[in-house]
Amino acid sequence: MSSDFFIPDPEGRIPSAQGYFGAFGGKFIPEALVAAVDEVAEEYEKAKADPAFAAELNDLMVNYTGRPSALTEVPRFAEHAGGARIFLKREDLNHTGSHKINNVLGQALLTKRMGKTRVIAETGAGQHGVATATACALFGLECTIYMGEIDTERQALNVARMRMLGAEVIAVKSGSRTLKDAINEAFRDWVANVDRTHYLFGTVAGPHPFPALVRDFHRVIGVEARRQLLERAGRLPDAAVACVGGGSNAIGLFHAFLPDEDVRLIGCEPGGHGVETGEHAATLTEGTPGILHGSRSYVLQDEDGQITEPYSISAGLDYPGIGPEHSYLKDVGRAEYRAVTDDAAMQALRLLSQTEGIIPAIESAHALAGALEVGRELGKDGLILVNLSGRGDKDMDTAARYFGLYDAPADDAVEADDTDATDTALGAHQEGTK
Amino acid sequence: MAGNVELLSSVLAGAKAEGRAALVGYLPAGFPTVDGGVRAVTAMIEGGCDVVEVGLPHSDPVLDGPVIQTADDIALRGGVKIVDVIRTVGEAHAATGAPVLCMTYWNPVDAYGVERFAADLAAAGGAGCILPDLPVEESEVWRKAAEEHGLATVFVVAPSSRDERLAKITAAGTGFVYAASLMGVTGTRESVGREAQDLVARTRATTDLPVCVGLGVSNAEQAAEVAQFADGVIVGSAFVKRLLAHEGDLEAGLAGVRELAGELAKGVRA
Predict the structure, then answer these.
(1) Closest residue in chain B to residue A37, using alpha carbons only
(2) What residue of B is the nearest CA neighbor of A189?
(3) What is the mean pLDDT of residues A177-198?
(4) A122 is a catalytic site residue
(5) pLDDT-based confidence at A415, cuts 50/70/90?
(6) Which one of B64, B120, B225, B231 is the catalytic residue?
(7) What pLDDT does A417 receive?
(8) Is A100 a catalytic residue?
(9) What residues of A are in contact with residue B135 (Cβ under 8 Å)?
(10) Residue A197: its pLDDT value, please?
């Protein structure tokens, strides 16, 4: 089994040589970055053809990450889903606590192959940043993480984790001071320092080849889960469900099921306070095609092409763009996307915690809430696979405030008793496993 | 009505005939207000700029440093729209007769509609567009519209551009070539490095288009230095800084813009 953790798309049909998934993707970057982005694409093609690359990555996935990740059936949770059977793909059990490590290790090896000594990355509030800092510590690479200032303040613990791992964390003070702006600032750094720096992009967005490259490093999720479910349940699922911010864990789960036309692929977008309120980050549900961070995809924007501010309780999903392959899958009808509100996600987070003893990330809880809905739609014979993309330790402060779990007689407790005040206090910018 | 690509070429040729580099100034539209921005762009020309670029403020200016980011933020908070940007181009051109380009990230053009944007910019008297995040490979639709409407398509080249790529880019461009003096975002720098001179030489080897150098130039001394080896000197953030320095006092800001344009104009003639 250990020989097949790194499994690039065997079909190889999309994207096109220019990086297009249908009408989406491409490479909208400044001239100063063209050489560097082309170098990443060339090195990745060489790496794919090099058995030593696959061998090294496979070894890391087994002995460092802990792959394959478990597949866990959750019958007590599923009682709330109309009796459908639900299995969770446990990416939360990976080293560093989310699926992000899959992509990070692959790109860290590419960084070494390119002879670059410095890595930069964006992070919503820490998951991709912690994974990147981890890989840089492992390989002796200099590491700088860009993080919106609001997120560094609210997620001080993850900032400390990254610094403990030896990374420099820069609080981004421009724009809305969140994930989108962290990406902007990382691009500015890359333009200025591209000679020795690799931008270790954290999701399946960005210019070609990142959407395909990041997808390939996460394909293992669906490949493993498909095999595990066939062994355990004796058939393919009726639906594979994942949360989507930028879309990396979702594409990782979906991709191995693309040829299985009877398997519905369902992405759960952050519905925030409800798409009707305008306070959401449901890019595929509410967005229009445009260009953000180097590729054409659905984007939350106004009629002048200005990017609008997203909102989600989960900073990891709090992003106004989406990977181009998801836009393609939506438009060709192969995948479907639905919005899940903050409240539905938080209820699903508590439900899984108290029925199965698994505390999920708030991001992943969006997928769990979606699975509860889908289960009720499918009825008793339904079989659902959910990607549990990350663990929820990082979200305990948010959850404790949301549910009023703190004992302290401080303002927090008062706030937590008042739903409206709690929502406001939680704000737009919590931790992420986009 | 056709755009003013030919005016742009003749003004650049005129500077060359005088044995000097052209001075190209940049300011974003809507900064500090739409009307104030029109006056500021006009002041750059009155002060001595041969050509001006009007920036289209964007929510996500990934190629701009803190100075232009600040100006873009002010303009967007003030509610500037694409129609205001086009109006700024039109009024600055009408007031001065100078060639006025638009510099914009690609998404606003894409959202507004490529054909509509080209038509409206040309109708306003615009001379062309600089599209710094639209690589030549993705530019065909724009170039077709630009050609139809008499607009220049100015591509940016960078020190990292290999020679064969330079040839491909300059073959597709019109008006002039924007040579980025260094690897980095917009902003003033202490010095403009040798990289710029090498890039200009390598670019000239591929094209007869004028090659103008931008990024980092902020004073007459630097302008004079760059003018020794380039066909034009592009200055942006330094103009924005003059306006920011007099925030709340537009007349003083405009005087600062005129003064800087005058100094730089002497620089390119040194």
Answers:
(1) B160
(2) B184
(3) 93
(4) yes
(5) very low
(6) B64
(7) 44
(8) yes
(9) 27-31, 34
(10) 97
Of B209, B134, B141, B131, the closest CA to residue B170 belongs to B209
> Of the listed B50, B53, B91, B120, which one is catalytic?
B53
Of the candidates B4, B24, B3, the one whose C-alpha atom is nearest the C-alpha of residue B231 is B24
Most B-contacting residue of A120, A180, A306, A319 (CB-CB within 10 A), to test interface: A306
**B62, B77, B82, B215: best to mutate for the A interface, most A CBs within 10 A:** B62
pLDDT-based confidence at B182, cuts 50/70/90? confident
Band of residue A4 on the pLDDT scale cut at 50, 70, 90: low
Average confidence score pLDDT of chain A = 91
pLDDT tens readout for residues A378-405: 998 999 999 999 999 988 988 999 999 9
d(CA B103, CA B42): 16
Domains in chain A and their CATH numbers? 21-65+100-214 (3.40.50.1100), 71-96+219-426 (3.40.50.1100)
Interface of B with A in 63-102 (CB under 8 A): 63, 65-66, 69, 73, 76, 81-82
Whether B183 sits inside 8 A of A191 (CB atoms) is: yes
The nearest alpha carbon in chain A to B63 belongs to: A188
Residue A333 has pLDDT above 60, yes or no: yes
Q: How far apart are CA A149 and CA B172, in angstroms?
A: 41
**Distance of CA A377 to CAs A72, A80, A239, A263, A383, Å?**
22, 12, 11, 15, 11
The matching CATH number, chosen from 3.40.50.300, 3.40.50.720, 3.20.20.70, 3.40.50.2300, for B5-268 is 3.20.20.70
pLDDT of residue A433: 37
pLDDT tens sequence across B140-154: 999 999 999 999 999
Active site residue B18: no
pLDDT classification of A358: cutoffs 50, 70, 90: very high
Angle between helices B34-47 and B237-245 (to 10 degrees): 120
Residues of A within an 8 Å Cβ radius of B: 18, 26-32, 34-36, 174-175, 180-181, 184, 187-188, 191-195, 288, 290-293, 299, 301-308
The mean pLDDT value for B46-70 works out to 96
DSSP state of A69: P
Residue A419 predicted with pLDDT over 80: no
Give the per-residue pLDDT at B181. Answer: 87
The verdict on a CB contact (< 8 Å) between B138 and A30 is no
- CA torsion, ordered A212, A217, A222, A226, to nearest 10 deg: 120
Chain A contacts of B62, Cβ < 8 Å?
30, 184, 187-188, 293
Show Cβ contacts of residue A92 under 8 Å, excluding neighbours closer than 6 positions.
Answer: A98, A358, A360, A361, A364, A388, A389, A390, A391, A392
Q: pLDDT of A53-112, one tens digit each?
A: 999 999 999 999 999 999 999 999 999 999 899 999 999 999 999 999 999 999 999 999
- Judged by CB atoms closer than 8 Å, whether chains meet at B160 and A32 is answered as yes
Confidence of residue A305 (pLDDT cuts 50, 70, 90): very high
Report the interhelical angle of A31-48 vs A179-193 (nearest 10°): 90
* Nearest CA distance, B23 vs chain A (angstrom): 23
- Contacts (Cβ under 8 Å, ≥6 apart) of A419: none
